[in-house]
Structures are given as C-alpha cells and as structure tokens.
Amino acid sequence: MIGVLADDPEHSVVIEFFELFKTPWEFYRSDFHYDVLVCSNTQVRNSSAKLVLVYGTEQKAFDREKGIERLSQCSNTVLSYKGDRIPVYGNCLTFQEARGHPLMHALTHESAVCEIASPGQTIVRVGYDLFHEIGYLLTRGQPLTHARIPTLELHIAVLRDLIIKSCSISLVEIPPIPSGYNFTVCLTHDVDHVGIRNHKCDHTMFGFLYRALIGSVINFGRGRKSLRQVAVNWMAAFSLPFVHLGLAKDFWNDVDRYLEIEKGLTSTFFFIPNKGEPGQDAGGRQPSRRAARYEISEIVPQVNHLLAERHEIGLHGINAWRDTAKGRAELESVRIVTGASEIGVRMHWLFFGEKSPATLDKAGFSYDSTLGYNETVGYRAGTTQAFRPLEVERMLELPMHVMDTALFYPSYLDLSPKQARAVVKPIVENAARFGGVLTVNWHDRSLAPERLWDDFYVGLIEDLKSRGAWFPTASQAVSWFRKRRSAVIESVIREGDSVRVKVSIDHTDSDLPGLRLRVHKPPARSNAGARQTKYHTNFVDIEFNNSAELKSEIGKLKSDL
Ligand SMILES: [Zn+2]
Fold first, then answer.
1. pLDDT category, 344, cuts 50, 70, 90?
2. How far is the CA of 550 from the centre of ligand 1 (A)?
3. Rounded to the nearest whole angstrom, what is the distance from the C-alpha of residue 372 to the centroid of ligand 1?
4. Does residue 388 register a pLDDT over 70?
5. In this structure, which residues have their CB less than 5 angstroms from ion ligand 1?
6. What is the DSSP pairing of strand 183-190 with strand 437-441?
7. Whether the model pTM is above 0.90
8. Quick check: 196 and 243 in contact, CB under 8 A?
9. C-alpha of residue 41 to centroid of ligand 1, in Å
10. Closest Cα to residue 281, out of 369, 331, 347?
C-alpha cells in the first residue's frame, strides 16, 4: 500500500493519477504502516515505510537534515530515464553526490534523484513535483515540441520502477489492458461533408478541383501520389458536373467503404448537429468556412445503416465546447436520431478551451474526444488512457492521437505515406507497451478523391490487428475505462511464494472484456539496490471479470536478473 502526503490543492490530481496508475494507495494516515510513502511538496514525516519518495522543487529542512545538496535548478527541461525522454514542465532540481542515477537531466546528465539507503529504509529524493506535472498534463497539455512523448505514462513507469527496484514488495496494479487483448484502438470519423453534392461553386468545391487537378500532379512530382491516383483524381474532377446532376455517384458520400475496410470491427462516426452554423471561436468570431452543409437530421437513413452495422454515432459539436445550453441542444439532435443514452462528442476543428470539459460534462456528454492536435500527432495530455478531467463530475476524456489531416496536410506535417508510417509506428508501439487506447481520426472524405488516404488507413488497421488490439466503439472503450475505474484492490496478502489479492468491480456491462491484475515480482534482494539500465518487466497477469479473490504464485516466476 502506498501512502500519499500532499497539499490539499493537489488532492484532485493525486486521485486521478492513481485512477491511471491503478495500484492500492490512500492519503497518508499517521496510524497506518505503508510499504511506500510518497511526500509531495510537503513536510516529510518520520515513517516506517520501506521506501520514502520525496518529490519537490524546493530545498527544505528535510534536505539539509539529510545532507542533500542541490547542484542546479532549471525549468521546462527534459530528463532521461532508461532510454526514455521525459519533459518536466515545472522546476526541476538536480543533486550533488548522485551522479549515475538513471533519472537524469538529458543534456548535462546531472541526476534528478538522490537516494539515501539505510537498513530497513530507502529515501529517494526526486527533484520535480510529480503531481504538478500530472496536473499540467491533464489541464494545459503538452506543447507541439513534446507531442510524441507519452509523458504521463512515463511518470507512472518511473514511479513503478523506483518502487519495485528500491523496496522488495510485490506491487500489484490493474493495467489499462483489456483481458484477451494487448491494447485498445478507437477508430473514429469526423463527418464534415457527407457529399460533394452539397458544395456548389463554394470554396470547398473549388478547393477540391484545384487539389484534384493541379495538387495531384504536384504531389505526383513529389512522390506523394501515384500515376493511378492522379488518374483517379482527374476522373473524379471531370465527373463532378454529372455528380451535381445526379447522373454519377457522389464520391464523397461513401460510408460503405469504411464499413468494408472495418469489416468485423466497430468505429465511431461524429455528425454535425446544425447545417450553416459556423459557431464561434475563442475570440467570438464566426469563421464562415466552419459551417457544414448538412446536419444529422437530414441523413437519418445513413445513420440507421451505421447503427445496424454496430457502429456508434456521436456529435461533431459546433458550440458545445463553450456553451452548456447549446451543448445540450446539440446532444439532443443526436439523441433524437439514435435514441442512445450515452453520447460522446468531438468538436469540429477541435475547438476547445480550459472550461470545455466542465461545460460538456454539464451538458450531459458521456465522453469527449477532442483533446489532440490539429498540427501533429501524439499525446496532448501525455497519456494513452481515457481520464476524467480534474474539474468534471462524470465525463471522461478519450484523447485523440492520430489524425489524417495532421499527417498529410501541406500546412501541417505534410508527410509522404512512408514518412507517416515512420511517425505513427512509435505511437502504435507505445500502445503495445503501455496499454490504454489509441484513438485514430480518419475524416469521412479521406478515402475518396482527392485525398485517397485509403491505403495508409488499411495498412494501419492491419498492423493494429496483428498486434492484438481490441477495436470497440469510443463509447464502449470509455465504458471499459469506467469499469476499470470501478475496480478496487481491497487487500493484498503475501503468503510465502504466493500473493492473495481481493478485488471488487462495481460495473454491470458483461459485454465488455474483463480486467487483469498484474503482480510484479520484486528483484532478487542482492540486486535490489543495483543500478539497472532497463525497466523492471517481471510480472504475472491474472484476468478477472467479477469481484473475486485471486492468487498469484510469484515464487514460480523466473528471476528478472
Ligand atoms: Zn470537423
């Protein structure tokens, strides 16, 4: 059991952090013995804990008492730990007498950790404020420069590693990995157009003609489009008058192509609530190009077709991000058509503000999936997990990680398919490494001329399938995270070579995959204090789907050293 001593303002961050690092913990009580005591920016209490972790960015009486000398102080820096880079957005101290610890400043190699071992207790002084960092990630989010780093997952990984390596306890946790799978993938589609027939002589139509006829040729010259794709785009451009006359198929209205590619999987389509409504941006302006030419009530047969194929319908919100009453009305436009009780949202153009989570929560959305970047791919909140934004009651945030337009738009990353595969590969590998969910957004018209981003999408899905991903709708994924949040590790009892763990789940959806209990085996005692260059990876998983008493034979695990 971990005891946490933190200032009151940090409590909400601490609670959410331990929903993501799902291991037994509680706020510190003076009358209880803890295996691990985490002190964050607070007075350090005398404790019988085997491991005392002291986080903070100021030198305190505790440091002077223990003879811990500061070497340097910086802010907005990057640490390295066992091959990973970890941005620290607040202050960060490095320490004298501590060279060689693997958690160090990435450039100077000065150690950000000072370890003091005495018989029966190890004190680890860490030079940054963990919960300030987590709060920053979950509220402000990462700048573009660090978008590719799953910083929050790395903070969990470092804490886990420090605990397992520094004190020989059998750490248990419920990782964000559904039983039977290696991680979760949410395939999602923002539906901005529905058809090119809705666009007569407007900027969208002329933009299409330019990109299909001229842009394609330029992209052929740059090796971004094949000759076949140029031909397909020219054919589409020349067919446009016939599309408008109703004599040729509307190539931008091809949801069935998604159903074909995603056969056997499920995905989520976000639809616009009101046509001709641009909404307002953060400055109160109404960007006319943001207005869509269709609304969900006009395409009920298409919606029903998707629902019949077990796909999910969500809201592609216009004003919901800034106005609760408008959010309720937008949500209702989806509910009227689908009858669903739990409805999620992603804002059109990813409009979002600091107050958006609370605004959307009050409007009644089950989840939001706006948190990502227009300009790049990666982890705005530093996490692969659905989380509850700090100021909301119920709604979860399902972060968006990979968006087609960010990869391929000339004004964003402007990648060739090969370059895009190289950029997305580490993101897929992170999903396999940390678990959690990888959320992909492929727009409704991205398979069609002139984009023709279908080969990349098909290849990505094949790769994700081969890595053992679970492909639920966004709503199902969020439900699974709620199920995990409802789980409680009630007791952990070590008995010789085994560990008995009592777990409970307060969730009734039996269609969802179960959870897994992960029991880490501590390293051999003789090596516990040794410097390691790799993360601890010696554990057993036990899958469970109900409240139960689980037993793990950790004595039978091979040694990790
Ligand atoms: Zn949109």
1. very high
2. 46
3. 13
4. yes
5. 190, 192, 348
6. parallel
7. yes
8. yes
9. 42
10. 347
Distance 317 CA to ligand 1 centre (A): 8
Distance from the alpha carbon of residue 440 to the mean position of ligand 1, in angstroms: 14
Spell out a b/e string for 349-366, using b for 16 or more CB atoms within 10 Å of the CB, else e: bbbbeeebbbbbbbbbbb
Q: How far is the CA of 421 from the centre of ligand 1 (A)?
A: 23
Ligand 1 mean position to 452 CA, how many Å?
Answer: 18
Answer yes or no: are the C-beta atoms of 327 and 488 closer than 8 Å: no
What one-character DSSP code corresponds to residue 167? S
pLDDT in tens, 55-97: 999 887 888 888 888 888 999 999 999 999 999 999 999 998 6
Q: Return the H-helix or E-strand segment holding 489.
A: strand 488-495
Q: Could you give the CA distance from residue 175 to residue 552 in angstroms, rounded to a whole number?
A: 16
Residue 55 Cα to chain centre, angstroms: 25
Separation of alpha carbons 531 and 165, rounded Å: 9
Q: Are 12 and 5 in contact (CB under 8 A)?
A: no
Residue 361 one-letter amino acid: D
Span 237-251, pLDDT tens digits: 999 999 999 999 999
Is residue 49 within 8 Å of 16, Cβ to Cβ?
A: no
What is the Å distance from ligand 1's center to 170 Cα? 47
380 Cα to the center of ligand 1, angstroms: 18
Q: How far does the centroid of ligand 1 lie from the alpha carbon of residue 226, in Å? A: 27
